[in-house]
Amino acid sequence: MKRTLFLILTLALLLASCAAPVKRTDTVFAMDTVMELTVYGDEALLEDARDVITDMESRLSVTLEGSEINALNSHGSAALSPDTVKLLEGALELCALTGGALDITVYPLVRAWGFTTGEYRVPGEDEIAGLLERVDYNAVALGDGEARLPEGAMVDLGAVAKGYLDDAIAGLWREEGVKSGLLNLGGSVYALGGKPDGSAWRVGVRDPFGSGYLGVIEARDVAVVTSGGYERYFEQDGRTYWHILDPKTGFPADSGLSSVTVVGQEGLLCDGLSTALFVMGLDAATELWRGRTDFDLVLVTSGGEVYITDGLESVFSLSGSYKDKEVKVIRRG
Ligand code: ADP
Ligand code: MG
What we know:
Strand order of the largest sheet: 1-2-6-7-10-13-14-15-17
Number of domains: 1
CATH architecture: Roll
Bound molecules: adenosine-5'-diphosphate, magnesium ion
Low-confidence stretches: none
Mean pLDDT: 95
Radius of gyration: 22 Å
């Protein structure tokens, strides 16, 4: 009797372990950042994700010779694959939505400040004024699978590419039947489904003033994208200069925000907005949010105040040294 019970139990355990998808993880260095992939399912899912990353980087990289964007910048025009056209169209829409706070043609300035190469410098006023004349996303002409730029203009999709990559990998995994996965593409996070035990993924929001986390968002089928001055910066003569530029001034954005986290279903939107709202500041970000229903925000001011929009009230909590801080909730009314 005991033996039969033992056998049944062993069999049940065996069946259960066969049925439960296996956790697979991988780390990839691409697009100048560390990408962490987690998925429950077959090993091949990771390979599929890596293929999407390689394909996208080979088309979108500004620095990689032969990429579609590199060709566009070098020659002033280039044929684009349908997927690149789609991304470019989406990015241009976000430039318009944010009144040019996001501007994919800010690249000549990004390059002058050395954020592309790591050879940082503070360009002179005249140099900045000259380069600003080349910045205008409205001048990007798109049609018939081809893009054209005016003389001297250059495009950089760095502010939106990782969010778009989130969408592409999550979309593919969904088609492949994945119920549970987590992407962290250097700060552009996407939570596919929840954890296998049914609970939500817990996504940390970085403390812009330290190395730990400021809070946690319980995430399910959403992108969580953060932009902040702490991600890439240099110091000179006692001043800090970071990699998100205000396309109106050509200088690092100084809107009074230290980080912006955008939560929503579309990674591209969240990535573009996280960069743009960092440029726009608290009031303009709040106003933009009030007119839409497709994203929510965590805003941290340079004074250390934490604001969230009301859609995050039940899923955001403070952590670490922020535990006792007041969180101000922004509402629609
Ligand atoms: P990260 O890539 O560090 O996660 P973002 O998504 O905010 O951060 O993108 C910042 C990158 O976008 C910069 O490194 C630069 O290449 C580019 N960039 C900087 N300022 C702007 C801007 N105002 N509009 C569009 N792209 C920008
Ligand atoms: Mg961004």
